[in-house]
């Protein structure tokens, strides 16, 4: 019975992580809250790496057509200097530029974030901050399309993603808020945010692969981790498709309300 309850806990963790990763309410913050509620101490980084990789698979599936087009046109521009492909080539460059702040700050402050800031009380306050940011941009309607993005815009969005390394600060929320504040249209902000997630998540997975192999707890926890991994793929896929429709309707204020409510509850009761 104990083993069954453990599997159920990890299933719930995988579903919550997967569902909350694409939407602007902070997956890392919800994992911190759930681990506290379930009294779970997950040692090592294997669990976080696997469930985030599950979310990455979902993002790759949904944005596969954009990815194929960008790669194809990027190669065409490099090899043939076709001006029609220049816009997609520049878009790739801006994604690379926006990835740099996260990589640098992640390496510098990883220990501080994991040891000091991964606490429920911190998550409560950072969820309030996420909610406030979403409330600020709830009615914004930018004018910038993919071809209007500049280096400064990419860096600002990149630094916003770096801030989201702190649990409770939503990655998708931070990047979409930053993208809309620099004037991007909602659909452009959404696409840039999730295509930006791909190199960051891939980089983290590749750099941390040895952590999974050398994790002394991995063999014993392989089945719970696998259940959480599969759950994160399914939950992320459907959550992202739903969020795309929400963005199209401009209903970000409801996520702000949610962050306010959960943040206050965590501060008061956890």
From TrEMBL:
One Gene Ontology molecular-function label: undecaprenyl-diphosphatase activity
Transmembrane parts of this sequence: 44-63, 89-109, 121-140, 189-210, 222-240, 252-269
Enzyme class: hydrolase
InterPro entries in the cross-refs: UppP (IPR003824)
Primary location recorded for the protein, binned into one broad class: membrane
Superkingdom field: Bacteria
GO-annotated cellular components: plasma membrane
One BP term from GO: peptidoglycan biosynthetic process
Pfam families reported in the protein's UniProt record: BacA
Catalytic activity: di-trans,octa-cis-undecaprenyl diphosphate + H2O = di-trans,octa-cis-undecaprenyl phosphate + phosphate + H(+)
Keywords: Antibiotic resistance, Cell membrane, Cell shape, Cell wall biogenesis/degradation, Hydrolase, Membrane, Peptidoglycan synthesis, Transmembrane, Transmembrane helix
Its membrane topology: Multi-pass membrane protein
Protein purpose: Catalyzes the dephosphorylation of undecaprenyl diphosphate (UPP). Confers resistance to bacitracin.
Similarity comment: family membership: Belongs to the UppP family.
Name the record gives this protein: Undecaprenyl-diphosphatase
Gene expressing this chain: uppP
């Amino acid at each position: 019975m104990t083993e069954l309850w453990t599997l159920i806990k990890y299933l719930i963790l995988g579903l919550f992580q997967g569902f909350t990763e694409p939407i602007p309410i902070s997956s890392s913050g919800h994992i911190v809250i759930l681990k506290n509620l379930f009294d779970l101490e997950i040692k090592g980084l294997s669990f976080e790496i696997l469930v985030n990789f599950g979310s990455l698979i979902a993002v790759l599936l949904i944005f596969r057509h954009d990815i194929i087009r960008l790669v194809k046109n990027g190669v065409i521009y490099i090899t043939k200097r076709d001006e029609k492909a220049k816009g997609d080539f520049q878009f790739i460059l801006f994604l690379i530029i926006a990835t740099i702040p996260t990589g640098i700050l992640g390496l510098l402050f990883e220990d501080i974030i994991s040891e000091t800031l991964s606490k429920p009380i911190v998550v409560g306050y950072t969820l309030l901050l996420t909610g406030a940011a979403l409330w600020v941009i709830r009615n914004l309607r930018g004018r910038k399309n993919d071809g209007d993005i500049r280096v400064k815009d990419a860096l600002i969005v990149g630094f916003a993603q770096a801030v989201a390394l702190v649990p409770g600060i939503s990655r998708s929320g931070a990047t979409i808020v930053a993208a809309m504040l620099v004037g991007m249209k909602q659909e452009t902000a959404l696409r840039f945010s999730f295509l930006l997630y791909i190199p960051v998540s891939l980089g983290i997975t590749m750099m941390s692969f040895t952590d999974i192999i050398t994790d002394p707890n991995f063999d014993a926890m392989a089945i719970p981790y696998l259940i959480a991994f599969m759950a994160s793929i399914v939950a992320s896929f459907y959550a992202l498709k739903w969020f795309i429709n929400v963005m199209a309707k401009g209903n970000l204020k409801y996520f702000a309300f949610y962050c306010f409510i959960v943040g206050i509850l965590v501060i008061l009761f956890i």
